[in-house]
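FAQ: What does a ligand-bound record look like?

Like this one, built around alpha-D-galactopyranose:
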Amino acid sequence: MDKELSRSFILFGGDYNPDQWDDETIDQDIAVFKKTRINTVTLPVFSWAKLEPSEGVYEFEWLDHILDKLDEAGLSYFLATPTSAQPSWLSKKYPEVLPVDIAGRKRTHGMRVFFCINSNKFRERAAAIATKMAERYKDRPGLIGWHVANEYGTYCYCDNCQNKFRSWLKNRYKTLDELNTRWHTCFWGKTLYDFDEVMVPSELNDDYRFNPAVQLDYMRFITDSTIECYENEARILKAATPKLPVFTNISGFIKKLDQSKMVPCMDTAGWDNYPWPTDERSFPAMKHDIMRALKGGESYYVMEQSPNQQNWQPYNKLKRPGEVRRLAYQGLAHGSDSSLYFQMRQSVAGQEKFHGAVISHSGRTDTRIIREFTELGKELEKLGDSFICGKANSDIGIMFDWNNWWALELCSGPTKDMDYLREVHNFYKTFYYGNYSVDFIIQETDLSKYKVIVAPMLYMMKEGVAEKIKNFVENGGTLVATYMTGYADENDRCIFGAYPGPLRDVFGIWVEETDALFADEVNHIHENGSDRTFECRFLCDLLHTTTAEVKAVYEDDFYKGMPAVTVNSYGKGKAYYIATAVERAYLDKLYCEILKESEVSPVMDTQGEIEVTARNRDGERIVFFINHGKEDGAIDTRGDKYQSLLTDEIIEGTRKIPAGDVMVLKKL
Ligand code: GLA
Ligand code: ZN
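The answer part, i.e. the structure of the complex:
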């Protein structure tokens, strides 16, 4: 987060929908906010229908009244443009605002985030209400930023979108020849003779064996259209309040919009974190790290988490005692400057009436959740601005790319179990559990500040990326890559001359074939020079070395004895190739060797299930410890001296961290 735009306190609070409540309830809620030290709310996210009951007729008085109360109480707020839920009169009067789904069905009014992102009428009315809000509220004392709409993500297949898609393609590829070449339309006789023959890829023209090249461009187009739709409102808000951040909240970890394109158009990343009870703790940690990457490593906002259970999971588990606190600190530890929640008060009816909230249907304050929030609120207040805008400063980068994600999972073959996020997570875990700080890097990022780069399944080689990677290794960097690397260009056209395509020389290998293992099938690799074997699954590349040295070979099947892990010296650096999804025990061992050689150290040594990260700012270093385990753990400061920001205690040497507890230390 840009220092100029950020606050000097941790934002604590979240979504508030007071248009559902009477005055008395709002006063009670504000009293709860004060008691729990909630300092920030987001509103009125879905209130377009109430703010503009008919076209051009605005009723802002009710909102003025609530904002007066919030201002009087000294609370901060993000004002949300309410444009993710258009009023029914808008859909009725201008049916063009309603989207068409992939089956070609024109949808009717009902759901939220249910509009055509390319509808001019939608944009016109959205800009109009954004203008009114900006004019009316820009000087409000409590206003700390603008939250545009809510969780974009509608794919539309209407005629308007189709026409715009054609223009988008014309603009991107200029000529039909170029488009035919990029889409390789000669396959299955799909040659296009005019741009107006391009169809949006829907069920009307396909049976789910879509040409990935067309799909990829359509997904890029929808991302660009969503950016336009966002900017249509954002530019108005920015012009009215240049010193306040403008952004939207990203739905969970959304695949269908390229966040690495969207977020750079915003002042900060803001995302909604709803981990599943079954998620390994490293999974939300990884998502936080990816969110931090979207604005080049700057801090970001967690805009929503659930204060307790969700309602939309099959089994909506309660948050266990202490879990909200650990989740809050996990966000802060990975780079968030906020801990915001959906929602402040549980709605009385509707789809989300059973979703957890700070204030439940009981309306009581003697509840477990309010007790936990009150404790957390006190702590966050004490932490003040000690790490706001602090950065991770990692030596390790993991490449992550939305286009690559799409392309891999659009592939028909080599396996139906293709899951980019799962594979990236597998390669992330060793660092995470080893207490190493990791940055995620998008393909466009400058690589030179990293010592080690891991690029799991870098299937799509966008223009210039291979050269960047080569330079990185040539100049002394260490690269780790895997199966499914270097296959295709940005239009999903395979690269001739054997995989990993333009990186063959860097790895000193060539891949001849790739075997797909059944879901329950296991092969093994045998480490050269030791008697250890490790399990491997998923995919097995059958490869040959040219200049690389073999570190491990397959144990089973007809490719027994062929290389499974190789290393190649290239320039001043080294490139490791892992040809199969090998179990973590092996990665732990291999990474350990690589990190030692590259002189990368963990943030700190710990015992037990403790998560450790650091945030650095102006020469100061704050280290976060979260004990996720049921047993006590310990840390060892190895001669350094720290001060606890929560208890003021000075800590040197070893120190216990009780089961489930958290510590935030400042290096002295
Ligand atoms: C999303 C939305 C919220 C709410 C929550 C429920 O993140 O932004 O409006 O629906 O989910 O978990
Ligand atoms: Zn549309």
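Follow-up question: can I read anything off the structure? Yes, for example: The pocket of zinc ion (ligand 2) is lined by residues 99, 116, 118, 156, 158, 160-161 (CB under 6 Å).
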